[in-house]
Amino acid sequence: MPVLFLLMVTSLCAQLIQSQLPAVSWASDPAFVSVQPSSSAADLKMEPSSLMDCAALCSTKTWCSSFFYNRLQNRCLVFKGVYFDKRGLPSTAGAEYYLIASDRCPCQDGFYLGRPDNLCFFYLRENKTYNGSKELCQANRGRLAILDTLSKNELVVLNMQLNNADVGAIVFLGARRHGEDFKWDNDNMVAAHNGSIQSFWAGNEPNTESCLVLKYSTQNLRINWHDIGCGRQGSGVLCEYQHATN
User: Hey, what's the signal peptide range on this chain (predicted)?
Assistant: First the structure.
């Protein structure tokens, strides 16, 4: 079963549309009505376009997680990541935002699904310690995020870029120190600082602290892993949600 991530938003999805591919449905997010990023920010664009053509285009791209469609401009903007914060997006008449509607990551409950790895994020800008972050995730039927693959880290980086994350933001991850090493909460070992593509340790990390955090860096706009004291406060909470198997 693939692991899913959740992302909390403050609004509910609205209008549902079915693309030409039955496997993918899309729902509009009313929080993003009449706002739109610039065309240069899109991973792919198409104009002129209809709404159904835009949905079909995004459906056929296995990396596509969301799209903006402007009814007045007949413009389609396709994105690998998802927007959950409209601050900084310019007002644009006719613009609507669409994301994947999935029973495994229901947009009506504020979840966003990222393709192709079926990652669904829950992110909340709250200052919490490790225990506080863990409790918040558990209260939402989840756990602290386990970023144990390259694709998961890349998706987090992408979404932090799209949503103008605070530089230096610190978020606890689902891992703790075990002796000289760190172990994820799924019992997999955290990759050592040895050049592995699955290791995002910052230079001279880890040190001797017990908890693992990600820190959003200005250097190449990427994530770096650091170890810090578990009693320190982070500046955001990132949770992972696993649906029960039948």
Answer: 1-19
